Sequence to fold (313 residues):
Amino acid sequence: MYLGIDTSNYSTSAALMGDTGYFSVTRLLPVKSGEAGLRQSDAVFHHTKQLPEIMRELFEKAGETDITAIGVSTRPRPQEGSYMPCFLCGEGLADSIAAAYRIPVYKTSHQTGHILAALYSADRSDMLNSPFIAFHVSGGTTECLYCTPSDTDIINITEAAVSLDLKAGQLIDRTGLMLGLDFPCGIALEQLAAECTDEIKVRIPAKDGNVSLSGFENKAQKLINEGAPAPYVARFILTAVYEAVRHMTISVRSRFGRLPVIYAGGVMSDIFIQEKLASVLDDISFSRPELSRDNAVGTAIYAMMTDRRKAAG
Fold:
């Protein structure tokens, strides 16, 4: 079994992965009502408090288990200078366990973990054998990524298109808070949008495949001030996110060819967005919701794949 740990700015997560499946425990970081996220110092505090509880619950679920190696996310993206203090919590725990049991620890990015978990969930791990496109769409990231096989790091990830300002998850959460929802607002906003059946047209400002979402926060506030029903506002915002992701997909495919696409990140667990994309695009895959949001399954997969590659020489 391979242990995975992920301490993002949203969740504390740990997982055990083996040939027959996985066990996983994920707990959201507590955010006060009306607030849109946590300061890093608060995130570090909550991870420090939650990690022992998460690990205890995980090993109670799995039973007696020998750990072969550990995978842990140590930074948001696989880029020079990518850093957030909250990932130090998971990294410190992984290093401590590895030292105590004299087992290897393999360090990767939160983004890599998202992609690996999504591919596993969608039964598309075959995509790792050739170039593909991956989306990481969450509260902190709205990125379209060109991915190729790597001999040293499982996948090479190159940014191909982004949101130039507000991220999709930020737009969803800020709109949700305007509507009186609790953070994180994605699931509740999706449920609200399902009550609206209006066909909404949205034009996305874009340049060279990159999109801009900041104007839609103001448009959502204007709709609310004008008395628009909450379900309509919710559907309007989710339609904007869908159109942004659709535009980025088509643009990047026009540059790299009609490659298969995997969608990851909490925002991409939204069924409304998934169904809209599936109606207009082919050869696309989505993660199951529980592995689309922040989780440690991807870091456990990273440990398993890296360790077995090293063993094979």
In short: The longest strand covers residues 142-150. The chain has two domains: 2-122+291-312, 161-286. The chain is about 45% helix and 20% strand.
